[in-house]
Amino acid sequence: MKKVKSRTAAVLLLAAAILAGIVFFITKLTLNGSDWAAFSANGNVYSGGMLATGTVYDRDGEVLAYMNDGERCFAQDETVRRATLHAVGDAQGNIGTGALKMFSSDLAGYDFVSGTYTVGNRGGEVRLSIDADLNVAAYNALDGRSGAVAVCDYETGEILCMVSSQTFDPADPPQLDADDTSGVYLNRVLSSTYTPGSVFKLVTLAAAIENIDDLYDRTFVCTGSYDVGGDTVVCSGTHGEINIEQALAVSCNSAFAQLALELGGDVLSNYAEKMGLTESFEISGISTAAGSFDIAADGSSLLAWSGIGQYTDLVNPAAMLRMMCAVAGDGSAPELTLKAQERSGLFSAKTRLLSADTAAKIREMMSYTVAYKYGAENYPGLELCAKSGTAEVGGGASPHAWFVGFITNTDRPLAFVVIVENGGYGSAAGGAVANAVLQAAVNQ
Q1: Distance between CA atoms of 21 and 31, rounded to whole angstroms?
Q2: Is 163:86 a contact under the CB 8 Å cutoff?
């Protein structure tokens, strides 16, 4: 009798262990099945180390990448191929942040019941949030220059345009030398950082609004430069006596140097962090590059320069785009996405970057900047709020041109960021690119 009981207990213990193993396996399969299916050693999904299944579309259903007789093919139009390269990726997988790489589990066509089996072996489908036509408009506006352009819906977080240049035709990929520095594989929107120049003054402005009580009652006197302990902070002009709205509009280095020195490095660093410019974050599972803000000694000219976006300041374009979403709204930015209709704007997670009151004040000043400095007539049909930046890069090279902001047109809530590398003045080079893309968007 004792033997029977012992054997029964052993069988029950074995059955429990088997059941636990089955539960563990099913749990792991549920959580990791798509990743296992998209593993590069899976011959049903990969051929020669390259993804051999799946179709990528833009938001309107235009085919951007597909398989034909075992060969990875791309959009029929070469300009579309070049303009959407970094969003879609290349067949060889050299662009690590492209859809073909990052969304491979979706393109494998995996589901829990049938695995990677699909009728006709077509694989899965991914519909990106980007609009191929807007990408083409941005690509053409860059006109061969290196840089980055991104536009998103600041209510839903969907990225409608994401162009990185230099680029190439994925249907005819280049053979690059080991010492090539063109950066064609780098998505500059997601994976690069730049000296921000005067677009960083929006961070200093936010800190000043919330920490300097008499900011709106002050005037600043600009004589063309500002002396800091024997060092000179040079301004782009001689602006005379101006208030804070005018100081932002004319991008007065003298005024913002004074504000930076009064606020101090710890406060500026705190606001750069609060506004999301020093952190890496994810866009549909893709990690962005983190920016940086080094705290210079209080009272130093380096601190003054850091407050106007120079010194060692670095900003990622996608982070600046997210910040523009927050300023355009109530101070909170939606989670950015590269997949169409990945989430509803109503229910999407939001990140608070600044208070609603501060966002409203910055928004009003950015609108004033367009009217006072850039000329609203240069952006017909656009209810534009913007800030330019001319970022000195040293080495005798022309500065990078930034232009960031948003439009408040009722039917097109769009935020944008433009960087033209070595493009010169921000409002001239960057503003022209932004205008081209936004005009294409509102006139669709």
Answers
A1: 15
A2: yes
Amino acid, res. 232: T
What pLDDT, on a 0 to 100 scale, did the predictor assign at position 425? 85
Structural tokens at position 251: 């991008």
**Rounded to 5 degrees, what are φ and ψ at 258?**
-60, -45
Task: Please tell me whether the overall predicted TM-score, pTM, comes out greater than 0.85 for this model.
Answer: yes
What pLDDT sits at residue 182?
79
Paired tokens of 247:
């100081």
Q: Strands 332-334 and 350-352, how do they pair?
A: antiparallel
Q: Is the CB of residue 132 less than 8 Å from the CB of residue 83? A: yes
Six token digits for residue 400: 């990078």
- Please choose, from the candidates 414, 432, 424, 362, the residue with its C-alpha nearest in 3D space to the C-alpha of residue 389: 424
CA distances from 226 to 234, 239, 272, 311 (A): 7, 12, 24, 16
Q: What is the mean pLDDT of each run of 10 residues along the chain (444 residues)?
A: 62 68 52 47 52 89 93 96 98 94 85 46 86 98 97 97 97 80 91 97 98 96 94 94 97 97 98 98 97 96 97 97 97 96 64 97 98 96 97 91 96 97 91 97 93
| Element of type H or E holding 101 | helix 99-102
Strand partners for 163: 149
Which of 48, 95, 56, 93 is closest to 73 using CA atoms?
Answer: 56
Helix or strand (DSSP H, E) at 13: helix 2-37
Instruction: Return d(Cα 203, Cα 416) in angstroms, integer.
Output: 17
Half-sphere exposure of 260 (CA within 13 A, CB side): 35
- What does the alpha-carbon distance between residue 86 and residue 184 come to, in Å, rounded to a whole number? 9
